[in-house]
Amino acid sequence: MYGRVRFVNVVRKLASPLVSLVALVLLLVGLLGASSSSLGSSLTAPPSTALAHTPPPAQLTALLPNLNFSTMVAEPDFLGVDEELMLARLRSAEIRSVHFSHGGSSLVLRIEFVDGSRAAFKPQQIHPQSVPRKEAAAYQLARKLGISAVPPTVMRAVSREELLSKLDAESQFLRARLLREAIFDARGLTTGSMMYWVPNLSDLGLDRDAAILAWTKELSQDGQLGAGRSEILAQLSTLLLFDVIQNNSDRFSGGNILGSRDGKKMFFIDNAFGFQNDQQGHLRSIGYLLRCQKFSRRMWTALQLLTDEQLTFSDPLSGPLLSTEEVSALRSRRDRVLRYLGQLISAHGSDSVLAFR
Fold first, then answer.
1. Over the stretch 174-186, which tens digit does the pLDDT of each residue have?
2. Does residue 192 carry a pLDDT above 70?
3. Quick one: which of 315, 337, 335, 311 has its CA closest to 324?
4. For 43, which of 236, 320, 336, 349 could close a Cys bridge (C-beta 3.0–4.6 Å)?
5. Which domains does the chain have, with CATH numbers?
6. Cα–Cα distance between 123 and 343 in angstroms, integer?
């Protein structure tokens, strides 16, 4: 399912100790060689970690005893709902009503299905900063990295007639905007991203100046994590990696780091601006990543195991979600992130850098 890594289930089913040993050796090979691409140049690290090479095999081998297979794959559900069922619903559930979602310059519609569930629909539109297929690509990239913070997303075609006829009373005054900004084909269809609507989202405030200074200190090698901050900062460090890999420079644009109201769970939402043909990565995204020197061990392992072949994404409706050039740039940025983490590990040791599970 969308490239979900099945390694955990395979290992659990191995009955023979000999076969289990072989599987362990294969994992080590993946750790040492999954990122052999030479695309792109080295990500500039802070002065104290500006090393010109990746960690030698011995350092990577030292990580093996600490690997926890159960944390290498995201759970097969999202907020307690089976993702296969959720994806099927997003693709085909009957639409009850359409509502304009306020905020931002892009065209975003809140869809309510007849079963009461909701989705955010971004139609193909005139705004260059919002490319719907990239939302679906970001979801698939997240799942291949074992990240469960990106809501399930698929591509879906909706007709102009259905959108207008089911536009709720509160949004009627925006009919002209819908017709002006959405792009419909000759059949009157617009193909866009349909993303599960996460209820009760809150701005976590992590992109404000004072907050940035605080977490920069906490996530440095010299800093200490504040009381009760480990869980959310672990998610933030993964978000910073994810945004460089997908090249989303729009995250720190104001109110775009969202999560649950209790501040414990972060959701990586609004990824339609990523995946540009930039081999190096946007300086803005890189700048925020360089503020962070503590990361998830599981994320480091997932990046090591992510092969070039896995960095292609497709949807049953629209086909390939990224162009050949976009995929090439994605692989280069993946390698850049791996080099940065490798430089940190070489300088400070795996236990200090891989501070989160």
1. 999 999 999 999 9
2. yes
3. 311
4. 336
5. 7-76+202-353 (no CATH), 83-196 (3.30.200)
6. 41
